[in-house]
Structure formats: structure tokens, C-alpha cells
């Protein structure tokens, strides 16, 4: 085990990628994610990996998909404008079940917005940015240690479920510097073979709820890869029965394993009448706010989301059976609040505390909302 290090969130993401076995990175510099590329440009050659600065974000995600098909664990990092450019190839990776990790360090948008200011406005883009009613995994760290740990987890989930995984961060967590335990993790950098003979290998097996291992190109396994809906050997199909099986399988491979995917933290919720829901940098302020509120006699607790997608419906549903109020604190205009309202179904009040001016929500602002008092600006 390595000694603790004093790292920023972006540095911890880069080190987490190395620990997870990432050996290919393609990206284009963009604030506030550029330090991830900067660190990996030095670290990847040290471990036998490849770093490529591409001409833009479209090329970056294309190179990542190609590297993953070749058997390498691959990743890229960007922010809002680049994330938008990547969406078509992210959809291709979803349809073809190609594992990869996409880091989105969020800033104020739309367009170029406020490049150096914090936001959490890409939550819905991570879920619905590419077209089609497909499932996706998106996870969100709120500390520098979690930047390391959840990066490792992102690669593990991508490989296990053969899907792109979004690691959502924000400008505050990315630039925050904290002590981190950089753990030595034994993860293979090259994907192992499928364990069956090439003649019987089916790269897309819709019969179960776990995808078969993806055979790397160039290892004797020949199969077709297309963004068209395809049969179990990869050939395009318009057979309605097979198309229906494909959709059922694509949803089932995540829905059947929510216990492996969902991740959250509960704080002071045992007797809480008000539940604060937060994530990323906002969860840090909310944790302090809950402590201050309890000092004032307000029975509040905090639900910190680490998995954003799939959304943790069952957790919210359980809390809605005993809490009378939810306060969703986020740096957007209510993207997670709408999901909480959907699950609560009127059983409790759902209030949103939002900020979109590039500044953080403070503990004082959150406490004021919990106490039903607004602070003087």
C-alpha cells in the first residue's frame, strides 16, 4: 500500500485510472479537466501505456472506442462543450457494448459558459445526451479520495457490464487538494479473452443478464461491430422479435444488478424528518449544513449520491415513507430534484435549492432552507 498523497481531484482521477489498469488515453485540453490529461501524459508512458492528444473531442472518444476494441482499458476526460461533441460516439459505444470511461468535469454552460466556474448542469446530459432509450452508468465523487476510488470503480463497472461509464465531477472537486490514499490495485491492463473457441464465440449474447467478455480485435476472434441494432454475432437486423430481445437485454444487464452498481452514503438519517439530497461539491456543504441544523434542533439528514444513473429509486422511496420533506441542493435548476419528485410521488414535500451563477451553495444557505429561512444576500 502506498503512503497517503496530497493530490487534487483531477490528479486523483489520473492516478485512479492508472491503478485501474487504464493504458490508453485520448483527449483534448479543456478547463477544468486539463490536469487529468497533463498527469496521464507523463504517467501512462511510465507504465507502458499510450497517451494521445487528439485534434478535438470527437476524435478523442473515437480513439478511445478503438483502443477498447483492441483490448486496452481506455478513457478520456472533458468538460461540457467537449462532452456534447462526444455524444454520438458514446451512443455507438452503448450500442456495441464497448467498455470505456468518460470523465466530465462540469463547468457553467451552455456553450462555453463560464469555463472556470463550477456547475452541476450535465446530469441529464449524462443520461440522455445521446439519442435512444438506453441505460447508462454515471457516478459522482464528492471528495478527492472518492475521485481515486470511484475512478477505479468506473473502470470495473465498464468492464463488468460492457458499457461506457461516466465519471461526473465538478470544478470544485477537481481543483480541491486533500490527502489521498493511493492504493496499489491489481487490475489487468489488457482484457482477457472470452474463454471459448472463436467458432462458437457470440460477442453479443442476449440470453442472460450479463454480457460475455469482449474479445480483443487481433486475437483470432472475428465478429462484426456496427451501431445498427444487431444479432448475437453482430450482423445488422430488423427482425422485430430480435430487436425486442436486444432492448430487453440492454435494460436487464443493468437493472438485474443494481446491488452492484448503486452507491450512496447516509448521514444522520435514522431520525431525520428532512432529507437533504446532494452530490459532488454540494454534498460537502450539505454535510456541514446538516450538522449545523441539528445543533439548531432541526432533525435533518443527508443522502449523498455517488451513483447518479441508474437513479437510486429504492433509496428515495424508502426515505419517503418516513420523511416529510426533501431538500435537493444542486448547482443547476433542478435536474436531480425532478427525479426525487418522480419517486416521492407526493408523499413528502420536495424543495429545490439551486444555484447557477458559478458559485457554490454554502452551508449557511442550506441551513436557511432547512430552517425555512432565507439568508440575506
Write the layout of secondary structure elements.
Layout: E1 4-8, H1 9-19, E2 22-27, H2 34-46, E3 50-53, H3 57-69, E4 73-78, H4 80-95, E5 100-108, E6 114-118, H5 123-128, E7 137-139, H6 144-161, E8 164-170, H7 171-175, E9 177-181, H8 240-255, H9 258-261, E10 264-267, E11 274-278, H10 281-295, E12 300-305, E13 307-309, H11 313-320, E14 325-330, H12 335-344, E15 349-354, H13 363-370
Parallel strand pairs: 2-3, 2-4, 4-5, 5-8, 7-8, 11-12, 11-14, 14-15
Antiparallel strand pairs: 1-9, 5-6, 7-13, 10-12
Describe this structure in words.
This protein has 377 residues and is α/β, with parallel strands linked by helices. Helices cover 38% and strands 21% of the residues. The strands form 3 sheets. Strands 2, 3, 4, 5, 6, 7, 8 and 13 form an 8-stranded mixed beta sheet that branches. Strands 10-12-11-14-15 form a 5-stranded mixed beta sheet, sandwiched between helices. Strand 11, helix 10 and strand 12 form a beta-alpha-beta unit. Helix 3 packs parallel to helix 4. The protein is globular. The termini are far apart. The model has no long low-confidence stretch (mean pLDDT 95).
Amino acid at each position: 500500500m502506498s503512503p497517503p498523497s496530497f493530490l487534487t481531484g483531477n490528479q486523483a482521477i489520473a492516478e485512479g485510472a492508472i491503478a485501474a489498469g487504464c493504458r490508453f488515453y485520448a483527449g483534448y485540453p479543456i478547463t477544468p479537466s486539463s490536469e487529468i490529461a497533463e498527469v496521464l501524459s507523463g504517467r501512462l508512458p511510465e507504465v507502458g501505456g499510450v497517451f494521445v492528444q487528439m485534434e478535438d473531442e470527437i476524435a478523442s472518444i473515437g480513439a478511445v472506442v478503438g483502443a477498447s476494441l483492441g483490448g486496452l482499458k481506455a478513457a478520456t476526460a472533458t468538460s461540457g462543450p467537449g462532452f456534447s461533441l462526444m455524444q454520438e460516439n458514446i451512443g455507438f459505444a452503448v450500442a456495441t457494448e464497448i467498455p470505456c470511461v468518460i470523465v466530465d468535469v462540469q463547468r457553467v454552460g451552455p456553450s462555453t459558459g463560464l469555463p472556470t466556474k463550477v456547475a452541476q448542469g450535465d446530469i441529464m446530459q449524462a443520461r440522455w445526451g445521446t439519442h435512444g432509450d438506453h441505460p447508462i452508468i454515471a457516478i459522482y465523487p464528492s471528495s478527492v479520495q472518492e475521485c481515486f476510488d470511484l475512478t477505479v470503480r468506473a473502470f470495473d463497472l465498464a468492464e463488468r457490464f460492457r458499457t461506457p461509464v461516466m465519471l461526473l465531477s465538478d470544478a470544485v472537486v477537481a481543483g480541491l487538494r486533500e490527502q489521498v490514499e493511493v492504493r496499489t490495485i491489481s487490475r489487468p491492463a489488457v482484457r482477457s479473452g472470452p474463454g471459448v473457441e472463436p467458432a462458437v464465440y457470440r460477442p453479443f449474447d442476449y440470453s442472460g443478464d450479463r454480457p460475455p467478455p469482449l474479445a480483443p480485435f487481433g486475437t483470432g476472434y472475428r465478429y462484426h461491430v456496427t451501431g445498427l441494432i444487431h444479432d448475437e454475432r453482430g450482423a445488422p437486423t430488423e427482425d422485430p422479435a430480435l430487436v425486442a430481445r436486444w432492448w430487453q437485454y440492454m435494460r436487464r444487464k443493468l437493472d438485474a444488478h443494481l446491488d452492484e452498481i448503486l452507491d450512496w452514503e447516509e448521514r444522520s438519517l435514522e431520525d431525520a424528518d428532512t432529507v437533504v439530497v446532494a452530490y459532488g461539491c454540494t454534498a460537502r456543504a450539505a454535510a456541514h449544513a446538516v450538522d449545523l441544523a441539528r445543533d439548531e434542533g432541526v432533525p435533518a439528514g443527508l443522502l449523498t449520491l455517488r451513483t447518479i444513473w441508474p437513479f437510486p429509486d429504492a433509496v428515495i422511496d424508502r426515505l419517503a415513507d418516513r420523511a416529510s420533506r426533501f431538500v435537493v441542493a444542486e448547482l443547476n435548476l433542478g435536474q436531480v430534484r425532478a427525479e426525487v419528485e418522480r419517486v416521492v410521488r407526493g408523499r413528502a414535500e420536495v424543495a429545490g435549492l439551486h444555484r447557477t451563477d458559478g458559485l457554490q451553495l454554502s452551508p449557511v444557505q442550506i441551513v436557511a432552507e432547512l430552517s425555512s429561512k432565507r439568508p440575506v444576500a
